[in-house]
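Good morning C.,

I know you're traveling, so I'll keep this short. The sequence:
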Amino acid sequence: MANKEINVKNALRTRLLVAVTTVMIGWGAGDLHAATRHYVLTNDDVAGANTATVFLVKGTPTNPKLTPVKVIQTGGQGLGGSTYGTVRQALARVGTKECFFVADANSNDVAAIDYKSLKVVGNYQGSTTDNSERNGLGLATSGKHLYASFITSGTIAAFAIQSDCALTFLGDVAAVGLTGGQIDGTAAHGTILVVTYTDGSIESFKTAGRVPVPNNDKQYTSGFNKFHDINAADVNITKDGRFAVLSDASITTQVEVSNISSGKLKPTVDYDSLGSGKNSNNMWISPDESLIYVSNNQSGQITALFFDNKTGKVSYGCISPVLKGFNSTWFTNVGVTTEDTVGTGAVLWLAEEGSASSIGIVNVTSTGKKCTLKEAAGSPAKDPNSQNLESLTGYPPRSF
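The tokens, ready to paste straight into the viewer:
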């Protein structure tokens, strides 16, 4: 075993054991920011009065576990599912304040939550024409701004995040694909916002702390031009803002990479047939950018791809076995995120949607040339508040 891998495991072991000791003191809002405490935050997307659930990370490095500690009534109405690439919650830091935002798609609002107290500050809407009913509401943050994609109306609303986590609506912009496709995924970084559409096209906007302005770079991806029956869905932007990495809604595991260092999208480089996993709507880049984790929505697995953050090149790494409960208690694995904020992220949290939604827990090991993905013994963790879990976030968040 490589020394780097041993060091990562030892660091995780120390942190998790301290976390287990700390949690014995008891739950309290003031404990949320203790350095040893890690959480998973969900948008339960209830088809009715919506909730968000906070899970505490416990267990050991080889058997991490999640325990629900708080259910938050958002004050809005959930939708009960949407396009898989749509991220339905977001975190932001404004000064010393940390804010948690949850999309209430069926009431056209964003619930703003003070992360320290876990209390809802308010529910905020865009313009009278911004509509997410029936189709969904996606969220992305950059600095002191939040961008909400109202899929039904095909608009993206910009909000300024205030010092108490309240939102101030700044305005909105039309966002529709080349042939009328709906918004699917969004990601913001610095002064650029990248958007994917369900018709195979993608687009970027200049933000610069104001209402997004189109960069006039709307285009079909290389993958769409090659296969014609796929579209880019989820999207991440690298830490340095050089690349936008997009995962495709496709039969196989497929990702595409666009160089955005100019401030606009360049034609994507397509990497297809990356292993045996089926479909790849959702993805997440590891904190050290060495791996791309792809959620194989139709085969109940997760694939790790090696990623060169200097060149943007992608290659196959490894794939997990079929995760427990697939096609019995849950039928689709969707959003994925990492537990740790350094290295490979050590543990993956995976949204599992079904009649009884849950969170899959997968351990990661990597030498840089070989990797393994192994489901933890304590996986999955049940999310009893949701039948439509498609999106989740780890806290503390990745740095980009």
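Safe travels,
E.
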